[in-house]
Design brief:
This protein is an all-alpha fold and 346 residues long. Helix content is 68%, strand content 0%. The longest helix has 31 residues.
């Protein structure tokens, strides 16, 4: 509902502005034909203003508005289609070409990363089902673990009843099957946490942030998981500065490669891994096999190809650095988890 309302607000604002703004210089085809830049007033020479860079001819139609929206967000006019194939098959070439200055053809690493993160969370919310991420706001009575467990069991019972009803009517149950899978996974986590110790004030980890987050999870699993997802989305960018120092360790004190090179490498790599996670979620939602192979075999192969193409290392050097980078990636992910746990448990 919020997304639909936001889109509606954008359309309303565009239509209102279309009525209120003057139409001077606009022809029947929706184009403006000006002799001076409408942005800074500089006399025009060519298709773009040489002072500020704005296009000489400004479109003033509703269709052009959505064209600009698609172009600005997705770069449909060539960039996305030049970027994604290279990101998938020749990530090292994409990284090196962007570092060397070929920017006009490709989506920037940061823009691509932010879009893939948004896409990943949107797909997760759709494939996991609402009950998997809605906060549990019930008041606990000192037995928060048991109450959270009972709430999940109640959801599972209702979903199973709904599935039986759909099957009786000869309808598909794929959506409910996905929700049930998420609820069973949540129930298993709750039971594991409960089994780790009956005393909710007991210490479960030497890391204070994780210990505090687990205690909050025991009291209200649904709400804590909901907050963790929100913080993970909000701080997803932190994976970039967390990961860059580890990549620097693969080429310490190198005069050829600098922190900027490593940042571009990391950001493109994270973008691909996020797309891979989206693919795994979609395959899981439709019950397709091969998810385990996708998430275990593809990442190291992709890192190897990106390392060789971006840094020009030998095959042996690529293999050794891929092994080290896989370990570093796991450590970086753990740092990110601790960051999210600290925010969640605060």
């Amino acid at each position: 509902m919020n997304e639909a309302q936001a889109i509606g607000d954008v359309v309303d604002a565009a239509l209102t502005a279309r009525v209120a703004e003057p139409h001077a210089g606009e022809a029947a085809d929706g184009h403006s034909h000006e002799t001076a830049c409408l942005n800074c007033g500089t006399p025009l020479v060519g298709s773009h203003c040489h002072a500020c860079g704005q296009a000489a001819h400004v479109h003033r139609t509703l269709g052009a508005f959505f064209h600009d929206l698609l172009h600005g967000v997705f770069h449909f006019e060539g960039k996305i289609w030049h970027t994604l194939p290279l990101l998938a098959w020749k990530p090292g070439e994409l990284t090196r070409r962007y570092i060397d200055g070929q920017r006009a053809r490709f989506v920037s690493p940061l823009a691509l990363f932010l879009f893939t993160v948004f896409l990943a969370f949107a797909v997760y919310h759709q494939t996991a089902g609402e009950a998997a991420f809605e906060p549990d706001v019930q008041v606990t009575d000192g037995k928060g673990q048991a109450q959270g467990e009972k709430a999940i069991e109640a959801r599972i019972a209702k979903l199973e009843a709904d599935r039986r009803d759909l099957r009786a009517r000869g309808q598909g149950t794929d959506a409910i099957d996905g929700q049930l899978e998420g609820q069973h996974a949540a129930l298993e986590i709750v039971r594991e946490v409960k089994a780790s110790g009956s005393n909710e004030n007991g210490k479960v980890s030497d890391i204070a942030a994780i210990d505090q987050a687990v205690k909050k999870f025991r009291k209200n699993p649904g709400l804590t998981a909901y907050k963790a997802q929100n913080y993970a989305y909000k701080y997803s960018w932190a994976l970039i500065p967390i990961s860059v120092p580890f990549l620097w360790l693969l080429f310490p004190f190198s005069r050829r490669f600098h922190l900027y090179d490593h940042t571009v490498f990391v950001t493109y790599s994270l973008s691909f891994m996020t797309i891979l996670a989206v693919a795994a979620m979609l395959l899981g939602a439709v019950g397709a096999p091969g998810i385990a192979a996708l998430v275990t075999l593809v990442p190291p192969l992709h890192m190897y190809r990106q390392l060789r193409g971006a840094y020009g290392v030998s095959r042996l050097g690529g293999i050794l650095r891929t092994m080290a980078l896989s370990v570093f990636a796991f450590i970086a992910l753990m740092f990110f988890v601790i960051l999210i746990a600290a925010e969640t448990g605060a």
